[in-house]
């Protein structure tokens, strides 16, 4: 099938590359000329395991092209995926300007039938607004072309995006019951057929329910994390091991093991903004989503917990003290630092007067970029970007771990001890067992593990 993807970011690039891998003829559009030039020169703008190979293979096969040419992109795809950003507005609601601009571009150039797919995470009712934008553009140039707007939210996780896209646990498709809606559904069914061969994974519903499903999923996952974080903080007070509790409750199939890890708080481009946007939608309908407000408040507090542990141990005034920080990305296997807990921790340590040496396996360049925005030049001068995990440790009072990269899971504890001034580890992701750390004579501070 001929597919256009509008927006070549995390979701758009992965969707485009994976649909090309299935044999489709894919045209990826972006407004960012630098991103398109990089892709056309064989580069990849993001760190995502496996993506580079899929992109290279499909470019070479002539099934995947990148361009900024809007007219050509609209002419290309029978199915037009909108995969642009939906960042939070000032009031927390989703900013739909990019989605609606993409829709207008389609309306401005389309001649024949198009399926317009909202893949971006968008609030309930956005399908109607996309439809109206298309109709307005068609009317403005006196053109007649039929189309159908479909909702097909994306559930991939960064760091596992290609794997998640290629092996989805579900595909949600919302469409309407008009003749165009049925035609669009048939085209979506054909497009996703390779994923449904052994097992039907598609859930068909109306557009509004599909839009809502995406927010419900992210909000549920964020709720689980905040709930566990709140329990972990209590566990620290009452002498309970939250990891034992996680096993104890996760084995109940009604609860399940996933997304029960207490830690330094959730980050990333989606949970924080989607929780806020759903709360905002509720407020527009005079409903106060009390649980989600708490989820957000708990997460804001949780991002401070690791730094508070350091301050409790080393004092309110960290002047003259130096710390090593391992892990800067908001989660492993990505270089994404949007809403990363490490950014809050670094601010806390620096505001308290400390100097830091930081290391991340892939996010160093991104860290330099975002920390230059977060910190003043004087504050930034107190950050050393280390060349390796061991290099970060030199002369530090203690090690603080914020992201659970695999490379941090089995370190050489003797070398760590030799490099640090004091054998103290603050572990924001509960990578190690407190008993093992005690045996190795480390002072160990996990999250919810003060047993
Ligand atoms: P992103 O910021 O990485 O990429 C968005 C891209 O769209 C950018 O490259 C931007 O230049 C481009 N763009 C903006 N306006 C455009 C226009 N009019 N025409 C063409 N290109 C345009 O965003 P993302 O992380 O890929 O997220 C996209 C959407 O998918 C969001 O709604 C997000 O909530 C949702 N989502 C993201 C993830 C994720 O893991 N990142 C997962 C599921 C859903
Ligand atoms: C999340 C969802 O998992 C995806 O299904 C969804 O498509 C995506 O948001 C989106 O809409 O963008 P992502 O943000 O890439 O994916 O990463 P997650 O693995 O969900 O992690 C999010 C944050 O939660 C990370 O900071 C992670 O450290 C934290 N987390 C996760 C925990 O603190 N505890 C856990 O048990 C799991």
Automatic annotation (TrEMBL):
Keywords of this entry: NAD, Oxidoreductase
Pathway(s) this gene product operates in, as recorded in its UniProt entry: Nucleotide-sugar biosynthesis; UDP-alpha-D-glucuronate biosynthesis; UDP-alpha-D-glucuronate from UDP-alpha-D-glucose: step 1/1
Any one GO molecular-function label of the UniProt entry: NAD binding
Keyword NAD attached: yes
Catalytic activity: UDP-alpha-D-glucose + 2 NAD(+) + H2O = UDP-alpha-D-glucuronate + 2 NADH + 3 H(+)
Catalytic residues, chain numbering: 270
All residue ranges annotated as the UDP-glucose/GDP-mannose dehydrogenase C-terminal domain in the record: 324-434
Signal peptide: none
Broad enzyme group: oxidoreductase
GO BP terms in the entry: polysaccharide biosynthetic process; UDP-glucuronate biosynthetic process
EC numbers, comma separated: 1.1.1.22
Keyword Iron: no
InterPro entries the UniProt entry points to: 6-PGluconate_DH-like_C_sf, NAD(P)-bd_dom_sf, UDP-Glc/GDP-Man, UDP-Glc/GDP-Man_DH_C, UDP-Glc/GDP-Man_DH_C_sf, UDP-Glc/GDP-Man_DH_dimer, UDP-Glc/GDP-Man_DH_N, UDPglc_DH_bac
Classification via SUPFAM superfamilies: 6-phosphogluconate dehydrogenase C-terminal domain-like, NAD(P)-binding Rossmann-fold domains, UDP-glucose/GDP-mannose dehydrogenase C-terminal domain
Pfam family for this entry, one: UDPG_MGDP_dh
Annotated positions binding NAD(+): 30, 35, 86, 121, 158, 273, 338
Residues holding substrate: 155-158, 214, 259-263, 267, 331
NCBIfam families in UniProt: NDP-sugDHase
Family per record: Belongs to the UDP-glucose/GDP-mannose dehydrogenase family.
PANTHER family per the UniProt record, alphabetical: UDP-GLUCOSE 6-DEHYDROGENASE TUAD
Protein name: UDP-glucose 6-dehydrogenase
Taxonomic lineage from the root: Bacteria, Pseudomonadati, Pseudomonadota, Betaproteobacteria, Burkholderiales
């Amino acid at each position: 099938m001929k597919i256009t993807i509008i927006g070549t970011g995390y979701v758009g690039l992965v969707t485009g590359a994976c649909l090309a891998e299935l044999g489709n003829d894919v045209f990826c559009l972006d407004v960012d000329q630098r991103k398109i030039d990089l892709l056309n020169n064989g580069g990849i703008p993001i760190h995502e395991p496996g993506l580079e190979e899929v992109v290279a293979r499909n470019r070479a096969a002539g099934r995947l092209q990148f361009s900024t040419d809007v007219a050509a992109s609209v002419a290309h795809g029978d199915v037009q995926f909108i995969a642009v950003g939906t960042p939070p507005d000032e009031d927390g609601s989703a900013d739909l300007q990019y989605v609606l601009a993409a829709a207008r571009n389609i309306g401005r150039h389309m001649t024949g039938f198009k399926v317009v797919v909202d893949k971006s995470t968008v609030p309930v009712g956005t399908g109607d607004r996309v439809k109206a934008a298309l109709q307005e553009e068609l009317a403005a140039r006196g053109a007649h072309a039929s189309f159908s707007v479909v909702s097909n939210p994306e559930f991939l996780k960064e760091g596992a995006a290609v794997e998640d896209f290629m092996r989805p646990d579900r595909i949600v498709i919302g469409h309407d019951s008009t003749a165009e809606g049925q035609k669009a559904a048939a085209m979506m069914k054909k497009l996703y057929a390779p994923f449904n061969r052994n097992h039907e994974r598609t859930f068909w519903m109306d557009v509004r329910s599909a839009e809502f499903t995406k927010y419900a999923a992210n909000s549920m996952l964020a709720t689980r994390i905040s709930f566990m974080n709140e329990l972990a903080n209590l566990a620290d007070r009452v002498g309970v091991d939250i990891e034992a509790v996680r096993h104890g409750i996760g084995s109940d199939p009604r609860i399940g093991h996933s997304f029960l890890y207490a830690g330094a708080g959730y980050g990333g481009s989606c949970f924080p903004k989607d929780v806020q946007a759903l709360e905002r939608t509720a407020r527009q309908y005079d409903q106060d989503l009390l649980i989600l407000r708490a989820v957000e408040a708990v997460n804001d507090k949780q991002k401070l917990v690791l730094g508070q542990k350091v301050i409790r141990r080393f004092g309110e005034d960290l002047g003259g003290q130096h710390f090593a920080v391992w892990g800067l990305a908001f989660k492993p296997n990505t270089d994404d630092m949007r809403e990363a807990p490490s950014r809050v921790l670094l601010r806390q340590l620096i505001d308290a007067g400390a100097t830091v040496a930081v290391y991340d396996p892939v996010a160093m360049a991104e860290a330099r970029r975002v920390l230059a925005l977060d910190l003043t030049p004087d504050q930034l001068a107190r950050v050393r970007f280390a060349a390796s995990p061991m290099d970060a440790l030199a002369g530090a009072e203690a090690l603080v771990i914020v992201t659970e990269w695999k490379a941090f899971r089995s370190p050489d504890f003797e070398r760590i001890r030799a490099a640090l001034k004091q054998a103290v580890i603050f572990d924001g992701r509960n990578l190690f067992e407190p008993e093992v750390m005690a045996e190795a004579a480390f002072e160990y501070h996990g999250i919810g593990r003060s047993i």
